[in-house]
TrEMBL record:
Pfam families: Sec63 (PF02889). It is a multi-pass membrane protein. Residues 8-78 form the SEC63 domain. It is found in: Membrane. It comes from the Eukaryota. Keywords: Membrane, Transmembrane, Transmembrane helix. Its main location: membrane. InterPro entries: Sec63-dom. This is DnaJ protein ERDJ2A-like isoform X2. The keyword NADP does not apply.
Length: 102
């Protein structure tokens, strides 16, 4: 499980920094799978960010904005400096569970 977390993180980072050409051929299939599941992952992250946290039904704005920014970064293969902070909000094991079990 820990290796899956690390591998997924590194594959996402390689995509965001546009360094996928340097990946070994054995990881290309895993990268393709992560990128295929990215829209579903981002959708689930948005659902988590929008869960009402107060009696008034307010969600968390910062994580929701982070999901939107992350989705743009994934689509454009661009690195966003605050993405690492954002990903820490959603613990890496949650991301891996969503990626590999959806």
């Amino acid at each position: 499980m820990v290796l899956s977390v690390i591998q997924t993180q590194l594959l996402i980072q390689a995509h965001l920094t546009r360094e996928t050409a340097d990946l070994p051929p054995t990881l290309n299939g895993d990268l393709k799978r992560v990128l295929e599941l990215a829209p579903r992952l981002l959708e689930e992250l948005m659902k988590m960010a929008l869960i009402p946290r107060t009696a008034q039904g307010h969600g968390w704005l910062r994580p929701a904005i982070g999901v939107v920014e992350l989705s743009q970064c994934v689509i454009q293969a661009l690195q966003f400096l605050d993405i690492l902070d954002f990903l820490m909000l959603f613990q890496c094991h949650v991301i891996v569970v969503l990626v590999f079990h959806i």
